[in-house]
Amino acid sequence: MSARTRRQKAALASQGEESEESLSNNGSVSTPSKKRTASKKRSRSSLRDEPNENIFLFAPNLIGYFRVVLAVASLYYMPLHPRTCSILYSVSCLLDALDGYAARYYNQSTTFGAVLDMVTDRCTTSCLLVFLSSAWPRWAIVFQGLISLDLASHYMHMYATLSVGGSNQSHKKIDPKANWALYKYYNSKVVLFICCALNEAFFIGIYLLSFSSPILSPSLLQPLPDAQPLSAQPGNPANPAPSSLFASPWSAGALEMARANKIDSQIPWIITIVSAPIMLFKQYVNVIQLVHASQLLAESDKQTRRASRK
């Protein structure tokens, strides 16, 4: 018998043993289609085992929704009830720290939650600054500039982070070499909380002073002589007594009317003066953040243009 014939017989014997082993293990001959079917079954089984999470019902996101409700309620009371508005607005701002803690505690940090948190902050602050623009007409351009800076800075920062770093990149992850103030602002929870809390406290203090300080709002104590009663207007009491009218019908004091003089201005002054330096630092961070985000986007554009020319 030749060597070739012996090799052929050995190969046939080996195939026969593999067939017998397959039959003994599975009871039938294994085919590629059956292997694919078994693989699909395992995939479906693994998908069934995974929990079906609803991102919208995560604990930090529920806190975020509650913040929105409180913010809307504070806007409703803003023209006529400064005390109620300030309490609701302050609670909404303080919950900003709680949703971050809940995200870390329950391991529920999400991109949706981060964007919801930032959008809520920007919208509530903008609404308060819009009211201050009407309460302090001379300083309207300053408040309008603060609104623009706040929105532009945070939008460009978030967009640059997601565009350059990808969807998994956090907007709070800052290179320490970028800028010391920006790095400290985002990487220290204490600094971030103090800056955000006192920044909002400054604007709340200015808001309360528009109802309580004759020094800043002389019209609070200067009724028009021989004035006729005002007609009913949205947000104004119907037909108030002539003695309760103020020189400027568009001032916050005119909206509050008699209640305005009952607010003591001492506490609003303390809040405003103490929080003013932190507010200025926060605006400095906004400027640095805007510049840093612009540089990131410009550098990304350079790399894209270089790649397109190759």
From TrEMBL:
Transmembrane segments: 190-209
Record's keyword annotation contains Membrane: yes
Subcellular location: Membrane
Domain of life: Eukaryota
GO BP of this protein: phosphatidylinositol biosynthetic process
Major location category of this protein: membrane
Membrane-topology annotation of the record: Multi-pass membrane protein
Low complexity bias: start-end ranges: 11-32
GO molecular function, one term: CDP-diacylglycerol-inositol 3-phosphatidyltransferase activity
InterPro entries: CDP-OH_P_trans, CDP-OH_PTrfase_TM_dom, CDP_ALCOHOL_P_TRANSF_CS
Biased composition range(s): Basic residues: 33-45
PROSITE patterns in the record: CDP_ALCOHOL_P_TRANSF
Gene Ontology cellular-component annotations: Golgi apparatus; membrane
Region Disordered, annotated ranges: 1-46
Statement: the UniProt record of this protein carries the keyword Transferase: yes
UniProt family annotation: Belongs to the CDP-alcohol phosphatidyltransferase class-I family.
Protein name: CDP-diacylglycerol--inositol 3-phosphatidyltransferase
Source species: Penicillium decumbens
